[in-house]
Amino acid sequence: MLSAYIPLVVDGLADAALIFFVAVGLTLVFSVMRILNVAHGSFYALGAYASVVIGIWLTGRGGPILGLAALVVSPILIAVLLGPLIERTLLRWTYGRPEALQILVTFGLFLILEDAQKLLFGVQPYSNAAPMQIFGISQIGGIVYLNYQLLLIAMAIGVAIGLRLMLKHTRIGKLIVAVVADQEVAQTLGIDSSRVFILAFSLGVFLAALGGALASPTVGVAPGLGSETIVLAFAVAAIGGLGQIEGAALAAILVGLTRSAAIYFAPEFQPVAPYLVMLAVLLVRPYGLFGSVGLRRI
User: What is the pLDDT of residue 131?
Assistant: First the structure.
């Protein structure tokens, strides 16, 4: 009987892993820069598009194994090319200004990036399932599992642990924590907060693009992917508490398992399941599972 629910849990955790990548990037940017980046979902979509296009190109020249490199190379390229450029040209002048203005600026960026995707890639869907096929399947207790799903879960755990270790035990992480705690004091101590902002925003872009790249073998990549993702990422960030890495992880698991359970038992509720969870959590804890009034830490 229990074995019948194991696929549900695996599907839910694999879904949670992909949600976590984009949600933790969103919450990292908010925690450091205090900006709700509406364009964050567009980086997810760009990561998916770039991964498919570069993956097919590499596969044609070096085989499927070489094509796997696109899953990592694509988000790095997007983070390096767009992260510093957008932070310095569009976001920097909005710091300290009303939140409504910041949201309007990032919403404008979202519209620009959505149209840019249509110009670059067209409106037809893209897909490249080769990375998922390379890892094959495993059969445990008569149940077949996709090894790629297990890889996604392992990578999400690795990213969560890596982020926490980076923030606690590296010089860059300590600089980020100092700026989050008090930007003015950090600047007084000689910390270049402008560079910290560029680094944090680029890391957020990388995490969103990584989520899109890793999701691309499992879904068709088409216009609208970014808008669907950002709405879900906001729900996860609200459930976990804005600016909370552990909150994003737990919220992603809750949403992933709920979506998976809805698909198995009541498919008609799958689109609204994450928002029902968000509503239930916010009714009890208005600042999210890990959030509190006036709390600002990472």
Answer: 85
